[in-house]
Structures
1.
Amino acid sequence: MIGLDLANLVIDGCIVKAPLGGEVAGRSPVDRGKQGTKRSVMVDGKGIPLGVVVAGANRHDSPLLEPTLGKRAWFGPWLPEQITVHLDAGYDSGKTRDLIDGMCCDYVISKKGTPLHTGARWVVERTNSWHNRGFRKLHICTERRVRVIEAFIALANAIIITRRLIAEAWTRYRWDGRPTRQP
């Protein structure tokens, strides 16, 4: 678990087009009612993807919060005692606060109606951008089955994690025979 910032978890949703529909497609509220899917992404404090939940684009962020936070169970004994969950204004409700309090976590939620303050949330926006810009299958979802979509997301996450590990190792470790520049 070296290099993971599990004390800070950041969650946000991302809506993408799904022109062929499918099991998790729904009417997109931001694309004139066309078919789309929503990914609720959980990352650590450095932007490493830890878990993704896929749903129809017409789903609100709040109901996806519990299954997304449920992905942290994979880290069992490595989770720190104190966890802070960073969320945007889409999660600003009493129900969300009660859910996070029930999980014994702290939270930082942007307030509705106030100017946007990204704070620690920029890392999840960057990870969503990596998903959409680096992997065309995720930017425009042409798959119809959930298992296939989740497999593409898992592959993209593995590539993102590998790239981040290489970048982190490049700046943190030195060894004999190291190339003079990063590949």
2.
Amino acid sequence: MTNPPEIFDRALLRARRQKSIPAFETVDYLLKHANEDIIDRLSVIMRDFPIALNLGAHLGDLSHRLKELASITEVYSVDSVFGMVERTPAPKLLADEELLPIAPESLDLVVSSLCLHFVNDLPGTLMQIRQCLKADGAFIAALLGGESLNELRHVFLMAEEELYGGASPRVAPFADVRDMGHLLQRAGFALPVTDRDVLKVRFNSATHLMKELQAMGASNVLTNRSRHHNTKALFKRANELYAEHYSDDDGRVYATFELIYLMGWAPHPDQQKPLRPGSGAVNLKDVFEK
């Protein structure tokens, strides 16, 4: 069995997230938006989840929100950054999202908000989550999708090509929403559902955008990132190109963030099952010819 490629430098990611803690709550608007959607989705599920786990808990906002729900009895908070785990409500656990020390079939619910897009082995992580769930347990997650930061990716490609005659990767290759349903099925989830939400966020400049990404602990952690072309000339040209191609009439620039939402269930014999192909009682051809 081959190991998955190491797209992200996870040690660097942890170090940058640790460093981001003092300013994190000033730039956590995307996280709070995703948390709100996860809570909304849970609120319409008419069943109880006695034991829940918040995977990638950040500073604990979603854990606090989960504890307020009458359907949930206990919430465990898990994060790979010590400084963040310290600030989450108990019970809590310091653990790598790619290697979960959770007993099989011990949880009724797993949620994860804006964490899983930075794991190297997403199929393997989803499979571990599935194995942690009891039969008919639920999984709900939000992660960044492939359209996120397309503008920033584009201007850096143009700037590096112009200045150096070639480009290096600077924005992560986030998942495509069309692939996520297949990944849920591959991990063994039943009744998989995926959907997306696209947000446009405005900034005073591309420099302001990059500073906010840094404050989120979400700046470039690609393993094959360039170590050489991080010059003032590059960032100056990227800022100029961003203003030229992606600004509004008032001079402010915008950035796209695609949020992909996942939901799946651990299989259970009593769950609704899709009909077999060809088993329908009504021929659609007859309906449309009426």
